[in-house]
Write a structure and sequence with these properties.
By secondary structure, the protein is α/β, with parallel strands linked by helices. Helix content is about 40%, strand content about 15%. The chain folds into 2 domains: about 230 residues, Glycogen Phosphorylase B (Rossmann fold, 3-Layer(aba) Sandwich); about 150 residues, Rossmann fold (3-Layer(aba) Sandwich). It is built from 13 helices and 13 strands. The strands form 2 sheets. Strands 3-2-1-4-5-6-7 form a 7-stranded parallel β-sheet. A 6-stranded parallel β-sheet has the order 10-9-8-11-12-13, with helices on both faces. Helix 6 links the parallel strand 8 and strand 9. The termini are close together.
């Protein structure tokens, strides 16, 4: 039996763009390939990067997408920002958003429809099309047209829930509000990383919505034998929606614990990080080393993800896979993935953070055991091989993939 053939349409596959989901897509796609899928990847922005696990089809609007991105980047620099940020308090759809959407529907959408038609025709026998975090509104009409023509199911995979929902303004890095002007009902299935957002997806018109949580590839994220270079370490893409937790987990403790070395990697921090050292960007390929080089790793999840039930983020699983001693802010539904106190520590404010940091730093054996148990949980339940199997089962290709593997 031939391997099931899946066409993946991704926001990007180039890690240089620093889209938060891209590293996760690489790991999930690898898991799909290892589960017996013949995967073809085409990208909405940038070049489709080849790998040992998938084939590629060129981006049909590469130059146009780069010109648009360069314009947004220039506008952000004029405002002295890393990227064009939407207001946290009022992330409304603007006149500029509406003008851009109209231009996309006239110029971009029909060209992408023809590109996907040609790709499906050339490949023959495509069993499913999965759209990975391309703004749903930009593909309006495409799933309906191609399903009618080729009888192929369309799946939308949203890795940014609940931040991608209209009430939160979509994502800053892509610059688009995914769902305004879109019709989720065009897709046979919408999957995402948040159980608490599934009802909202149905309200927006999705016919079927399922959760697939983030994970980690344990071959990439694993403990490394390196010298410790920091006592308490955090890495993230900006502090938007988590300034309070950055203050409580990093800023205030770093002032109280004068002998403890706090380090923060990432960019676009505008809130309180106290006395923590700034490490800047950390390339993805050395991120597991940076995790292993810290005695304690902090998981400061954005407020929206922390409050909406079981909204997973990749960082928690990456830290656990590296055997890190994790100290986290409270997360609704965290017990679905890890057992508090046994596999990670959860603190509710600066006072508890100071206490737990002192306890773990004074007892390295306890910290190591915490990390060991967290990694075991990842290996048992939270690898991308697990997630790939669930995705394939949800779209009806699991048995087909296993038979062809």
């Amino acid at each position: 039996m031939p391997a099931p053939k899946v066409l993946a349409v991704a926001s990007a596959s180039d890690l240089d763009f620093r889209y938060g989901c891209t590293p996760a897509w690489w790991q999930l796609w690898k898991g799909m390939a290892e589960n017996g899928v013949d995967l073809i990847v085409t990208t909405y922005r940038g070049r489709a990067i080849e790998s040992p696990w998938w084939r590629t089809v060129p981006n049909p609007l590469y130059r146009e997408a780069e010109i648009f991105a360069a314009g947004r980047g220039a506008a952000a620099r004029l405002q002295r920002q890393e990227f064009m940020r939407r207001s946290e308090e009022d992330p409304r759809d603007t006149i500029a958003d509406r003008v851009v959407r109209q231009a996309i529907w006239r110029y971009v959408t029909p060209r992408w429809r023809r590109h996907l038609e040609r790709t499906i025709e050339a490949e023959g026998g495509v069993d499913a099309v999965i759209v990975f975090t391309v703004p749903m509104a930009h593909f309006r009409g495409i799933p309906t047209a191609l399903r009618n023509r080729f009888d192929v199911p369309f799946v939308y995979y949203d890795g940014d829930l609940p931040m991608s929902l209209p009430e939160y303004g979509g994502t800053d890095t892509s610059g688009f509000n995914y769902y305004i002007g879109a019709d989720p009902g065009e897709y046979d299935l919408v999957v995402g990383n948040s159980e608490g957002s599934l009802a909202r997806l149905l309200e927006l018109g999705a016919r079927r919505a399922e959760a697939i949580h983030w994970a980690a590839d344990p071959e990439l994220f694993h403990p490394q034998e390196v010298e410790k270079e920091a006592d308490v370490f955090f890495y993230g893409h900006s502090d938007k929606f988590r300034r309070e937790w950055m203050r409580d987990l990093i800023g205030e403790p770093s002032r109280r614990l004068e002998d403890v070395d706090f380090a923060v990697g990432g960019y676009d921090y505008r809130g309180d990080i106290g006395n923590a050292r700034k490490l800047g960007r950390i390339p993805f390929n050395v991120f597991p080393r940076a995790i292993s080089a810290a005695r304690i790793n902090v998981n400061a999840t954005r407020r929206v993800h922390a409050e909406v039930e079981a909204s997973s983020t990749a960082r928690l699983f990456e830290l656990a896979a590296c055997g890190a001693a994790i100290v986290s802010n409270p997360l609704a539904g965290v017990e679905r993935w890890f057992e508090p106190e046994r596999e990670l520590r959860v603190v509710t404010g600066a006072d508890e953070a100071v206490e737990v940091y002192g306890e773990l730093l004074a007892d390295p054996g306890q910290a190591e055991e915490l990390g060991r148990r967290a990694r075991e949980r990842v290996l048992d339940e939270h690898t991308y091989a697990h997630r790939a199997r669930r995705l394939l089962d949800l779209i009806g290709l699991g048995a087909h993939a296993r038979a062809g593997a």
